[in-house]
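Weekly sync, protein design subgroup
Attendees: M.S., D.O., the rotation student, P.L. (late)

Item 1: inverse folding check
M.S. brought a backbone from last month's batch and wanted to see whether the design step gives back something sensible before we order anything. D.O. pointed out we never logged the input encoding, so this time it goes straight into the notes. Structure tokens as presented (251 positions):
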């Protein structure tokens, strides 16, 4: 079993209206403090939801949000504790009989990482696995880009995704790499059961050693002049095409 551990971030602060509201609503996130810098109808809703959860609300000035840098914080932030960060063993134990996972191979851009988490949550993915090194951590930027999905989808941080891939293969889970050079067209892949989709960075794609561990590889046919997709867009196409194929097999 791959070495894995609980993975924190830089202070567990999140910001932005949607991420904070989703954190308050989620059973997988514990919110200990909400800070707001202005009052309006949406902030009143946040304050009311915080009161229902017995979460204190602190009124702050605009300078308070400088800790997040030059970002769109929308005048609200929250201090949270995550409950959806799982060890590899916990992830496997909590997954259904035919799970679908996403494995990230060095996705270092936090915007892409957050967008992938949003897509994964919407597609009902049973877990996103990524490395503790050379991958964007769960930061405020990732939280905001994910629109709160980072608080819902099960997350698993491992020291080496190659060990995680080997363990998943031993359990009969198909490892499917996204490879625009050597992959078969997605529509012809016939992937309908349990699977783990491996996504590489936009610049380099999958590392050779990771690609060699995959059982199969797929590509998304492109018909325009631009020869690549944003990795989060590719993730959405892969995951929902898998849903479509699985539906037609079981229907």
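Designed sequence read out in the meeting:
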């Amino acid at each position: 079993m791959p070495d894995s551990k609980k993975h924190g971030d830089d202070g567990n602060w999140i910001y932005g209206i949607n991420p904070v509201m989703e954190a308050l609503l989620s059973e997988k996130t514990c919110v200990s403090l909400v800070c707001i810098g202005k009052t309006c109808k949406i902030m009143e809703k946040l304050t009311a939801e915080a009161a229902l959860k017995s979460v204190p609300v602190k009124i702050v000035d605009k300078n308070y949000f400088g800790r997040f840098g030059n970002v769109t914080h929308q005048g609200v932030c929250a201090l949270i504790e995550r409950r959806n960060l799982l060890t590899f063993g916990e992830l496997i134990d909590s997954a259904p009989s035919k799970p679908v996972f996403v494995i990230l191979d060095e996705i270092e851009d936090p915007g892409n990482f957050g967008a992938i988490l949003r897509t994964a949550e919407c597609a009902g993915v049973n877990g996103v696995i990524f490395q503790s090194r050379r991958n964007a951590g769960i930061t405020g930027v990732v939280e905001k880009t994910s629109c709160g999905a980072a608080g819902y989808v099960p997350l698993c941080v491992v020291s080496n995704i190659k060990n995680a891939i080997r363990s998943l293969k031993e359990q009969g889970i198909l490892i499917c790499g996204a490879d625009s050079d050597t992959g078969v067209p997605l529509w012809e892949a016939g992937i309908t059961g349990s699977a783990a989709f491996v996504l590489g960075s936009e610049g380099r794609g999958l590392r050779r050693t990771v690609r060699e561990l995959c059982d199969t590889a797929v590509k998304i046919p492109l018909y325009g002049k631009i020869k690549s997709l944003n990795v989060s867009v590719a993730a959405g196409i892969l995951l929902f095409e898998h849903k479509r194929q699985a539906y037609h097999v079981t229907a």
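Discussion: The two ends are 35 Å apart (CA to CA). Helices lie at 17-25, 41-52, 88-94, 110-122, 140-145, 161-170, 208-211, 231-250.
Action: P.L. to compare against the previous round before Friday.
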